[in-house]
Amino acid sequence: MRSYIGLIHKDPDSDYGVSFPDFPGVVTAGTDLDDARRMAEEALAFHVEGMVEDGEAIPEPSSLDQVMADAANLDAVAVLIPLKSQARKSVRLNITLPEEVLREIDAYAEAHGLTRSGFLAQAAKRQMSEDDNPGNVKGYALSA
């Protein structure tokens, strides 16, 4: 199981905040240290699962030396947070599409904050789900 460095920050009159240098923008907080670690495990697992679904590569964990070389991290306490979810491995593939379809896919994905791979994965899952559940429209079962 991989572990990532979480940085715990504590200001007076605040909860214990946790950030992840390997995942900029992923932050969480807890009322005490144990709660902060629990919340950090959940936030990390949730974020990585989203990256996997979007077809994004999961970074290798940075070393403590790499993290602490950034002066902005020196006021935090570094802790190891295990990645509890079993992130599925992404597989690279080669496909052929008409050029116009590829342009439309890329435009749609970009407009919706997705990667090309993430969009194609979501579209495939949605189609398979609809095929497995005939009569369902956007998650709602139709009744006679």
Automatic annotation (TrEMBL):
InterPro entries: Arc_rbn_hlx_hlx, HicB-like, Ribbon_hlx_hlx, TA_system_antitoxin, TTHA1013/TTHA0281-like. Residues 4-124 form the HicB-like antitoxin of toxin-antitoxin system domain. It holds the Pfam family HicB_lk_antitox. This is RNase H-like HicB family nuclease. It comes from Peteryoungia aggregata LMG 23059.
